[in-house]
Amino acid sequence: MKIVKILNNNVVVSIKDDQEVIVMGRGIAFNKRSGDQINEKQIDKVFTSEDDDITKKFKTLISDIPMEYMELSEKIIQYAKMKLGKKLNDSIYISLTDHIHFAIERHNDNLPIKNGLLWETKHLYKEEFEIGLEALNMICDQFNVILPEDEAAFIALHIVNAQLNEDMTNLIDMTKVIQDILTIVKYHLKIEFDENSLNYYRFITHLKFFAHRLVKGSHYKNKDEDDLINVIKSKYPNAYQCTQKIKKFVENKYKYELTEEEMLYLTIHIQRVLNK
After folding, report:
1. What whole-number percentage of the chain has pLDDT above 90?
2. Of 221, 223, 236, 230, whose CA–CA distance to 274 is shortest?
3. Which of helix, strand or coil describes residue 267?
4. Which of 73, 91, 207, 230 has the maximal Cβ count within 10 Å?
């Protein structure tokens, strides 16, 4: 690959497979000029995105934010990928770097921001929140800044967002949907959730995708399961009554109508949580 444009000593624009890419690596552009060959041993990351908007935002980010923030963000993202075993959308390199830079600026100006979804994030996105806490340790090690748990929750939400490929507004809406449903289940069944159980983890995972469909206005439908709902209805009447409450709630609040398939799977997951 050849350098098309130098953004700074550590970031250049190049062309790969007829597509513009951004290449990052410490000192990759030092003493170089446009047209020079990139030393592949110096490449840390190649950003390939078909979304021109991401590429433009990345270029703006590079010019506005010091390189050490990008490097720290890269470490946190690699740690998250390792812990979760999942791919993350490239947009997180922009959103997370920008957030960390802004969070440290706010801290230095003594302007902390409370995270209204701290409790929900800690309980609904446990793995991501643990990554957020480790990210705070990395931030402290590099910048000698101690940020509050609220920031761990913000970082966790960026990671969840990158898994679902959603914008932050939709993610916040999804989190509220999940919390609303959990509240209905908790009070209908008169139980306390065992948040360390496999069944609870499965339920939360199901609710994430359900909330994603709700926010998007899409539905899960499989005609092969039409008959099964009647079996589940009679086998798990209490769990099904709870699902009916959820159905009525989301119709009233979100104008979203559950399909029988969605009611089927909600009932099954609710029964599993009830069985613990």
Report:
1. 35
2. 236
3. helix
4. 73
